[in-house]
Write a structure and sequence with these properties.
The protein has 252 residues and is α+β, with helices and mostly antiparallel strands. It folds into two domains: 30 residues; 202 residues, no CATH class. Helices cover 18% and strands 37% of the residues. Strands 1, 2, 3, 4, 5, 6, 7, 8, 9, 10, 11 and 12 form a twelve-stranded mixed beta sheet that branches. Strand 2 and strand 3 form a beta hairpin.
């Protein structure tokens, strides 16, 4: 190989390595966040309003008990609608699947370990509150088994049966995936500079073979949050501190 050919080969290798290093650094620096497929809307999907027993005209007043923030959708997944509740809590509503034919009692495989794992897969970031939420920016796998990892203090299984799986935790992080070998499809992590956990309730809900995910968290960590708020919101349309009538379990 002559000197010119060696120079061209070395130059090509240098350019390729530079591109790879630059790409990996960029992905690490931005933690895989992307927004280019996101579509924002100022309306709530009608089925979400029905799920929460809310009127079409609700949630518009900035001083209301339930204030709609926005709806986010992309080409990869169903819309996610965001609300502030009583100016103290943050609610997310998301339809995970349209034809879920499994019992939540057996489909959800929950563990209580540290879910903090990062990959270079792009995620769409939601950081409005002290709990940061990320949704994988690729098409989700159709759920059959749901691997749910919830890490934090005072974790309680508030209710779990064929149609509902409902949890409370002073959460440090959580993850949801549909195959153990996959990267996290949905991930949440406390991002407070002063506290290591955020009180959070998470509910998987099956309605007419549709699977919904509802997440209620503190808007900031100074909020007083007693478990049962999401149940009260769902069934009574207003927050309260009453516990749901359910088979509360403390993870072992």
């Amino acid at each position: 190989m002559n000197i010119f050919s060696r120079f061209i080969l070395a130059f090509t290798i240098t350019i390729a390595l530079g591109f790879i290093i630059s790409t990996l650094y960029s992905r690490y620096k931005n933690r895989g966040e992307i927004v280019d497929t996101t579509v924002w809307s100022n309306t709530v999907p009608h089925e979400y309003l029905q799920l929460l027993k809310l009127q079409d005209s609700c949630c518009k007043s900035p001083n209301g008990n339930i204030v709609f923030v926005e709806t986010k959708a992309s080409k990869y997944r169903n819309p996610i609608s965001y609300f502030f509740i009583a100016d103290r809590y943050y609610l997310q509503v998301y339809k995970m699947d349209t034809s879920f034919n499994y019992s939540l009692n057996t489909a959800i495989k929950q563990v209580y370990s540290n879910a903090h794992t990062w990959t270079y897969t792009p995620y769409a970031l939601d950081s409005r509150t002290d709990m940061e939420f990320l949704y994988k920016a690729t098409k989700p796998r159709k759920p059959k088994s749901i691997f749910f990892d919830l890490y934090g203090d005072s974790t309680i299984v508030l209710k779990k049966n064929d149609t509902i799986a409902y949890y409370y935790s002073k959460c440090r992080n959580f993850s949801i995936k549909f195959n153990l070998q996959d990267q996290n499809d949905i991930y949440g992590e406390c991002q407070s500079k002063s506290f290591s956990e955020v009180s959070l309730e998470l509910m998987f809900l099956k309605r007419h073979k549709e699977l919904f995910l509802l997440i209620l968290s503190e808007r900031n960590v100074k909020t007083d949050f007693k478990h049962g708020l999401l149940d009260s919101l769902f069934f009574r349309q207003c927050p309260s501190t009453q516990n749901p009538k359910s088979n509360i379990q403390t993870p072992k």
